[in-house]
């Protein structure tokens, strides 16, 4: 089988399409013939060595969509031939991958193959962030960093469906403003100085109740300038490569909080909680509350180009690899 392999940490070009031995499965796993694998910022971090996982060589890729072609002894053979979305055990950037029972799911029937390929991590992460970590309630206002990306566009729609009163989406280029505004958010342009609180105060003088922050660094301090009493910052990434810093006396006098969240940590350490999150999250796709935005589709051997597209900050929507 062909798969992408990272032999050394570093740039996207360190990924190489190679022939690898066929995968074997355990009693509670399935073997999936890949149709699409999604490309996530976490994959970029893994290639650079800044994401939990083993040392090289390894195959990147967290989630995938494809057809079950083999099942372990503990699983029903009727699963063979079923199309599923899955969180991978063996790395999704390959023609085949493996997944453990409880970490693969039948997609809603109204999804296209491309949407099913984009859905697993987007839906799981977004539902966990908005519903579990931030506990968004009807009438809350929310700020979404990287609003035109995969998580961003999904979070805008989910927040809208859950009754958010005002949704503000930070974007890095003017071209991305129509993308988020079409989904129901107010687009806010920001630069490397992260001087967006002043602009947001013009739009939402009352401040915000929730921030979904995948950037950290100086953005934590900026978010605190506009975060209301009892508000929450959910820090779920560090795209700036710099940790955010806050002081306790910026939090307890106003009952504000900063919550760290990793859906990857949940999958690794409490996998039994993944299925209930996916069950609830997928309902937003089934009833049409969320339409997944597909950005670009690359062939498996173009994985480096896919990573470069995300790093350019010019991409919008979800990027996929076609196996």
From TrEMBL:
Superkingdom of source: Bacteria
GO MF annotations in UniProt: mRNA 3'-UTR AU-rich region binding; mycocerosate synthase activity; NADPH binding; quinone reductase (NADPH) activity; zinc ion binding
UniProt cross-references to PROSITE patterns, sorted A to Z: QOR_ZETA_CRYSTAL (PS01162)
SUPFAM superfamilies, per database record: GroES-like, NAD(P)-binding Rossmann-fold domains
Entry EC number(s): 2.3.1.111
Gene3D superfamilies to which the protein is assigned, alphabetical: Medium-chain alcohol dehydrogenases, catalytic domain (3.90.180.10), NAD(P)-binding Rossmann-like Domain (3.40.50.720)
Keyword Disulfide bond: no
Keyword Acyltransferase: yes
Domain Enoyl reductase (ER) as annotated: residue spans: 10-321
Keywords linked to the UniProt accession: Acyltransferase, NADP, Oxidoreductase, Transferase
Protein name, per record: Mycocerosic acid synthase
Organism, as annotated: Acidithrix ferrooxidans
């Amino acid at each position: 089988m062909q798969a992408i392999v990272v032999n050394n940490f570093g740039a996207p070009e360190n990924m190489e399409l190679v022939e690898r031995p066929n995968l074997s499965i355990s009693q509670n796993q399935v073997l999936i013939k890949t149709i699409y694998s999604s490309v996530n910022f976490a994959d970029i971090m893994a290639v650079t060595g800044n994401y939990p996982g083993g040392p090289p060589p390894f195959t990147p890729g967290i989630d995938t969509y494809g057809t079950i072609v083999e099942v372990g002894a503990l699983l029903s053979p009727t699963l063979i031939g079923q199309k599923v979305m899955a969180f991978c055990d063996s790395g999704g950037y390959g023609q085949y991958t493996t997944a453990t029972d409880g970490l693969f799911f039948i997609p809603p029937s109204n999804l296209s193959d491309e949407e099913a390929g984009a859905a697993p991590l987007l839906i799981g992460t977004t539902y966990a962030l908005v519903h579990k970590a931030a506990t968004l309630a009807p009438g809350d206002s929310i700020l979404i960093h990287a609003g035109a990306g995969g998580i961003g566009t999904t979070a805008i729609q989910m927040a809208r469906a859950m009754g958010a009163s005002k949704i503000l989406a930070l974007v890095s280029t003017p071209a991305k403003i129509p993308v988020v505004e079409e989904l129901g958010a107010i687009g806010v342009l920001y630069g490397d100085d992260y001087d967006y609180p002043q602009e947001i105060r013009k739009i939402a003088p009352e401040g915000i109740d929730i921030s979904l922050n995948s950037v950290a660094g100086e953005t934590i301090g900026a978010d605190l300038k506009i975060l209301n009493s009892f508000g929450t910052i959910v820090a779920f990434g560090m795209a700036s490569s710099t940790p955010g810093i806050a002081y306790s006396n910026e939090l307890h006098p106003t009952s504000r909080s900063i919550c760290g969240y990793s859906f990857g940590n949940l999958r690794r350490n409490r996998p039994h909680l993944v299925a209930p999150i996916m069950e609830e999250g997928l309902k937003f796709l089934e009833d049409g509350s969320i339409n997944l935005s597909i950005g670009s589709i690359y062939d498996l051997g173009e994985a480096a180009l896919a990573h470069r597209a995300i790093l350019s900050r010019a991409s919008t929507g979800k990027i996929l690899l076609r196996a």
